[in-house]
UniProtKB/TrEMBL annotation:
GO biological process entries: energy homeostasis
Signal peptide location: 1-18
Residue ranges annotated for the Hemocyanin N-terminal domain, each copy included: 34-158
Family annotation (PANTHER family): FAT-BODY PROTEIN 1-RELATED, LARVAL STORAGE PROTEIN/PHENOLOXIDASE
Domain Hemocyanin middle span(s) in chain numbering: 164-432
Name recorded for this polypeptide: Hexamerin A
Keyword Signal listed: yes
Keywords: Signal, Storage protein
UniProt source species: Anopheles quadriannulatus
Lineage of origin: Eukaryota, Metazoa, Ecdysozoa, Arthropoda, Hexapoda
A molecular function (GO) term: nutrient reservoir activity
Matching Pfam families: Hemocyanin_C, Hemocyanin_M, Hemocyanin_N
Length: 708
């Protein structure tokens, strides 16, 4: 059993909402038994494509009698999943070395079976033996996917840290020429590399696809769309709420998952639009299924098996005969969604009507659009986004069912690299706005906080720059495995890990910003509890025209949010960007993480557990758009609202020091609609009239690293 020593470092000032990283100043330190498990978990992801890499893991795989181990799983339905997985194994799993995509129905069903078996394993030993078996016998991509989702959703594994996705499989994140250079160093016996502490070490410069070839203007912001932190965030957003996972057991519906699905994508689009404006690109283009897609994409990525990620030419003809069936499906689904939004209800197969006309119905609509298991209807409304991504990715139809070569759009780790991703989700988010257009505008009473007046907002100078970040890509090379000796490793014990003889890193340039603070000065006539929201939005469009508030409301990005106890009289609320809610810092590399785990295990130092690198947060580096050298005008919007408690008190049922609380129904700080008050059409006369809201003009300056 895991035990922890708890240290309270101070009372939490704010309570989280937004990107929904728990906000707490508590820290816990891991005990030895927990660190033993953490070490073993990390090793499952090391040298993923070498099944014989570690002889002890090989022994676990070969000695685990999967077919005869049904009693090791917790629920009777899972025994059936175990039998189903074994049947897949006997009759043909996706072979190792082939490319896994969760968008492939056969791949997905096999991955779900493995996830179910891992999720319901009755204890740590069973879980680990199943994982070791799967690492050896199951396709590499499928193994990592199922294991990641299982660790994310098992309550007894809260707090465990997984390696960053870009370190597990650099092929989805790092350009081909960098991977090739890393493999050349290995093939040439590490020639030209320096030894540091007995380990061959080298750092390879890495760039974005735009430097190699210019296909269109969209590549001006490849530094943003190809950012490894941004793409990791989106991958984890999916593993928290997979479109195929739901039901009472997992509790995802308690998290307003449908509303969250739409709002997260709306916020991604808003943040993306701010970056486009910083590069003079303007609005996100729209597309038609019946005309050529103007935006091509050359991903410059290569799978482990040597196949390149499919590229899409500019003015790609999507309406090809091979796509006719899928296009008809998507067009039908899109029309059905538009129709039910406008009519305000839809009808189930049994004739029952489901209301879509109340503010709370946005959750129902989101589930319907995502077509997840928590949706009311699965026959008439299906995976609009999934089919669109498959069609637009321009992948070639495979000869054999298992020999697929998915596009970047068909992986959650790489989808945001492709500019068409944002065009697809602009179309999806349009349903969100269409629904909101049918709701009444917020009244003065719904916006007003009696007795509270914001007197002013002061913001530090906002400055962005590009800095350097080294990514451990050692998993992209094969190393010599230790030989497996039958009978040497009996029983279940600590994994023996022989450190790699080499560490290879790719040095990338990423957008970052100088830390800044803002201060809200306000007056309250009595002590009260308030919810504070801060948004960042554009002031001018791409042509230099001043935006009207109503046409601009969908472009505001939620920058910060917190709960605050107000005192009677003057209040000054000071917030530092380092502590904004919903953001996380860069992930610790495998090398450093493993070193810290072992130092904690031996007692040399304490291994700290907190949410500073939580998987469910947006990269802190990317909270501000690049801006321009001479300054680019934006505007902050601050609103202080009466606190409205959520249906379930925040942090109920989970430990916010260890967990993001997915499936708890207790992740959110209040009960306001996501995006309030920009989520509905705006009556500008009322919006500007309430004293508890404030607009503040700001400028964002982009500087070179040397200038800072």
């Amino acid at each position: 059993m895991r035990t922890f020593a708890l240290f309270v470092l101070g009372a939490a000032l704010a309570v989280a909402s937004g990107a929904f990283v728990p906000s707490t100043s508590q820290v816990k330190y891991a005990e030895k038994d927990w660190l033993h498990k953490q070490e073993d978990l990390l090793l499952l992801f090391r040298h993923l494509y070498e099944k014989d890499w570690n002889p002890q893991l090989v022994a676990y795989a070969k000695n685990f009698h999967f077919k005869e181990s049904a009693e090791l799983f917790q629920h009777e339905p899972t025994v059936q999943w175990a039998k189903k997985l074994w049947s897949y194994y006997e009759h043909g799993l996706l072979p190792k070395g082939e490319v896994f995509s969760v968008y492939d129905e056969v791949h997905r069903e096999q991955a779900i079976a493995l996830f179910r078996v891992l999720y319901h394993a009755k204890d740590w030993e069973t879980f680990y033996k199943v994982a070791a078996w799967a690492r050896y016998y199951v396709n590499e991509g499928m193994f990592v996917y199922a294991l990641t989702v299982a660790v994310t959703h098992r309550a007894d594994m809260a707090g465990f840290v997984l390696p960053a996705p870009y370190e597990i499989s650099p092929y989805h994140f790092i350009n081909t020429e960098v991977i090739q250079k890393a493999q050349q160093y290995k093939m040439q016996g590490y020639y030209g590399m320096k030894k540091v502490d007995g380990v061959y070490t080298v750092t390879i410069p890495s760039n974005y696809t735009g430097w190699y070839m210019h296909t269109n203007a969209e590549q001006k912001i490849s530094y943003f769309t190809e950012d490894i932190g941004l793409n990791s965030y989106y991958y984890y957003l999916h593993t928290d709420y997979p479109f195929w996972l739901g039901g009472e057991l997992f509790g995802l519906s308690k998290d307003r998952r449908g509303e969250l699905y739409l709002y997260e994508h709306q916020q991604i689009l808003a943040r993306y639009y701010l970056e486009r404006l910083s590069n003079d690109l303007g609005h996100v283009p729209e597309f038609s299924w019946w005309t050529p897609i103007a935006t091509g994409y050359y991903p410059d990525l290569q799978y482990y098996n040597g196949h390149s990620f499919p590229a899409r030419d500019n003015y790609y003809h999507v309406d090809q005969e091979s796509n006719y069936r899928e296009i008809r499906q998507v067009v039908d689904y899109e029309k059905r969604l538009r129709d039910v939004i406008d009519q305000g209800f839809f009808v189930l197969p049994d004739g029952k009507k489901v209301n879509l006309s109340t503010p709370e119905s946005i959750d129902v609509l989101g589930n319907l659009i995502q077509a997840n298991p928590d949706s009311y209807e699965h026959r008439f409304y299906k995976y609009v986004a999934m089919y669109a991504r498959i069609i637009m990715g321009a992948a070639i139809e495979p000869v054999e069912p298992y020999q697929v070569i998915p596009s970047a759009l068909e992986h959650y780790e790489s989808a945001m690299r492709d500019p068409v991703f944002y065009q697809i989700y602009k179309r999806i988010v349009a349903y969100y706005h269409q629904f909101k257009e049918h709701l009444p505008e917020y009244t003065y009473e719904e916006l007003y906080y009696p007795g509270v007046k914001i007197d002013g907002v002061v913001v530090d100078k906002l400055q962005t720059y590009f800095d350097r970040f080294d990514v451990d890509i050692t998993n992209a090379i094969d190393i010599e495995p230790e030989p497996y000796v039958p009978g040497k490793y009996e029983g279940f014990g600590e994994i023996e890990y022989k450190p790699d003889p080499v560490v290879i890193k790719a040095r990338t340039m990423r957008l970052n910003h100088k830390p800044f603070t803002y201060k809200i000065s306000l007056t309250a006539d009595k002590p009260a509890k308030a919810a504070v929201r801060v948004f960042l939005g554009p002031k001018y469009d791409e042509y230099g025209g001043l935006y009207t508030l109503n046409e601009n409301r969908e472009n505001f990005y939620e920058l910060d949010y917190f709960v605050q106890e107000l005192t009677a009289g003057k209040n000054v609320l000071t917030r530092s960007s380092v502590n904004f809610n919903g953001y996380v810092k860069d992930r610790t590399s495998f090398y450093e993480l493993y070193r810290s785990v072992m130092a904690g295990y031996t007692g040399a130092e304490k291994f700290q557990l907190d949410m500073s690198e939580a998987h469910c947060g947006f990269p802190n580096r990317l909270m501000l758009p690049k801006g321009k050298k001479g300054g680019m005008p934006f505007q902050l919007y601050v609103i202080v609202s009466p606190y409205k408690a959520p249906q379930v008190s925040q942090y109920t049922g989970f430990d916010p020091v260890l967990s993001c609380g997915v499936g708890s129904g207790a992740r959110y700080m209040d009960s306001y609609a996501f995006g309030y008050p920009f989520d509905r059409p705006i009556d500008e006369k009322l919006f500007y009239a309430v004293p508890n809201a404030f607009f503040q003009d700001v400028s964002i300056y982009h500087k070179s690293e040397g200038e800072l």
